From TrEMBL:
Protein name: LtrC-like protein
Compositionally biased intervals (Basic and acidic residues): 296-325
Organism: Eubacterium ramulus ATCC 29099
Positions of region (Disordered): 288-334
Length: 334
């Protein structure tokens, strides 16, 4: 009888090798799936104005994601509100629903770098599995977007602008526009008397134009009209402004004869322009939020202190009561 345990050890190693091979195969398939989905959904966005608008909706929700990953989200779960991997949801005390574990949202993340034949450096990409909040055990799947006061939004919007912003009388505005950027003057004129919603809707496109102009007095606004429309829509969507004035039905004309890679480049230009403005706004809005929080805490602490003082006056400390009681007993003992 063979008393050697070597065969048992070798047998236990086989499943592990198979597991590694299965993981590698799955990763490759997921990566290829992402490439296929990206090509398909990009072609749809370039030929269908309604699909373009849906992409802009997704990109405004996931503004920190790359254009390609926003397109992948659009292709797989366009109604997603908050995404995280398995570890993210576990760390937040939630878990994936059993039926959803096989329905991840795949995105691409940069992996190892490599050197191309021409000497430039490229990146390998890995597919990552994400899950929407609606796929988890969190009972409330509705994400409450931060609500800002209109005054705070406008204050954030005009903070550190790329050009001067000047309030103008209505009769001074060309074609009764709400706002108008003049590259040759490096200035945006804004019509007086508008509501916060009107200021935001009219000022945002001109700020995007000013960003593209980058100080060029001869800048032609027609060059970036499409990108400005996309970026402005995303910003209005992000901050809860009315977007009914936007119409992208003629967008396919802009993308005509473009390859899918070129389409993604153009979409990225609009995304980057929107993010430049939202990043400036975020600094001011975060400062306001922190200041409000500190004030609230100070008022709360002040109220607690007042209540403690009042409580001490009405209810003497037990120790003092006990000392008084001991003194009374000594006096009676005498």
């Amino acid at each position: 009888m063979d008393n050697s345990f070597d065969s048992l050890l070798n047998a236990s190693a086989v499943p592990q090798d198979e597991k590694v091979q299965a993981f590698i195969a799955e990763s490759k398939n997921n990566r290829n799936r992402c490439y296929e989905l990206s090509e398909q959904v990009t072609a749809q966005v370039a030929t269908d104005g309604k699909m373009l608008q849906k992409y802009l909706d997704v990109q405004s929700t996931f503004d920190r994601y790359t254009t390609n990953n926003a397109l992948l989200i659009l292709a797989q779960r366009p109604d997603a509100q908050k995404l995280g991997d398995y570890g993210y949801w576990r760390d937040h005390g939630f878990y994936l629903k059993r039926m959803e574990q096989q329905n991840p949202v795949l995105i691409l993340e940069p992996g190892k770098t490599y050197k191309r034949e021409d000497g430039t450096v490229g990146n390998y990409y890995n597919a990552k599995k994400l899950y929407d909040i609606s796929q988890t055990t969190m009972s409330d799947t509705t994400i409450q977007k931060s609500e800002y006061e209109e005054h705070d939004l406008i204050r954030a919007l005009v903070s550190t602008p790329p050009v001067n912003i000047v309030a103008a009388e209505p009769e001074q505005m060309p074609d009764e526009k709400g706002a108008f950027f003049k590259p040759e003057e490096g200035c945006i004129y804004v019509r007086k008397g508008m509501s916060a919603q009107e200021i935001f809707q009219n000022l945002v496109p001109e700020l995007v134009f000013a960003g593209y102009a980058d100080g060029n007095p001869h800048y032609d606004k027609n060059e970036d009209a499409f990108h400005v429309s996309c970026a402005s829509y995303m910003l209005c969507k992000k901050y809860g402004m009315d977007t009914s004035r936007y119409n992208f039905l003629h967008a396919p004309e802009f993308f005509e004869k473009m390859e899918t890679q070129e389409v993604r480049v153009e979409l990225s230009r609009a995304r980057d322009a929107a993010n430049t403005i939202s990043a400036r706004m975020a600094k001011v809005l975060d400062q306001n939020r922190n200041a409000t929080y500190r004030q609230s805490e100070a008022e709360k602490n002040g109220q607690d202190s007042s209540e403690n003082v009042k409580d001490k006056k009405e209810n003497p400390e037990p120790e003092k009561k006990e000392q008084k009681s001991r003194g009374q007993h000594r006096k009676e003992a005498r």
